[in-house]
Amino acid sequence: MSSEKRIDITQPLWDQSTFVGRFRHFAFISNPLLTFVPEKQLYEARDLYMKYKAGQEPPGTTMAQVIRAKQLYESAFHPDSGELQNVFGRMSFQMPGGCLATGAMLQWYRTATAVVFWQWVNQSFNALVNYTNRNANAPLSTKQMGVAYVSAMTAAMSTALTFKFVIQKRATNPILARFVPFVAVAAANWVNIPLMRQNEILLGLEVTDENGKVIGKSQIAPIKGISQVVTSRIVMCAPGMLLLPVIMEKIEPKPWMQRIKKAHILIQTAIVGIFLTFMVPTACALFPQRCKLSTDTIKRFEKENYEEIVKNTDGKPPKYVYFNKGL
């Protein structure tokens, strides 16, 4: 490949300072079809990615091959550790996994047993996604993962059951019962994700200058990043879990829908899948992946960490530090 055609393979192909650029980037790496790429092909893509990064790609390598290798590598390998991620925890599996769990929660919400079971399924899936996309520089112990999982389950189930029983006793509009899954999922996200990433807050997250050089740590940085991730996850599922109940409440009484009751779960799952196909990259693109934090904030709340940053920058700390917020 000629030198003038080279790209920085470690950087996104689109401008990440704009929502549209971030949307295109996340649509690129969260394409559900990437879930079905064989493991052998993923490792081949990683090899080409690394060789191109080092300027040692095989003669005759085309730009299309480089772009494809970049897409496969960034969709399947952890950005910190470089390890191959569990297929069910990848962002490319968010649509198929999410539509199955969400479709089931929206279909079977009438009994307490169904609510508890499908919240368990959904939170188990969420826990796997959160663990897969954790910051690898702040690993969790088995005990911490267990506590995070049980806490998220408890939050989801208690919220769902409480909301369900309150609605049954006081609400006159039956459609409100269909919103139980969303309320439970939103509440659990505020428990599950922070607990799964608690070590980032307890130990601090590495922060860099504008050029990517590590200059210290911050405990406020992960709080900001995790808050943005939780918000994105809730936005990701909101259209399917808020609009679909309204749609189903309107069409379920129709004679043609009554004739195909067994197909209702398939219809809901398909509609949720359509929503998620667009909402996964939309939600991920709400905030820049490379998050920034003012050093004035660190100076105010983390004096020791600020002093370390000052020391590592020869007394000239930058106005902002940067870090990966996670997904």
Automatic annotation (TrEMBL):
- GO biological process assignments: serine import into mitochondrion
List where in the cell it is found: Mitochondrion membrane
Q: Name one Pfam family in it.
A: SFXNs
- Output the Gene Ontology terms for molecular function: monoatomic ion transmembrane transporter activity
Q: What main location does UniProt list?
A: mitochondrion
Q: Which residues cross the membrane?
A: 146-163, 175-193, 265-288
Q: What is this protein called?
A: Sidoreflexin
> What is the originating organism of this protein?
Parnassius mnemosyne (clouded apollo)
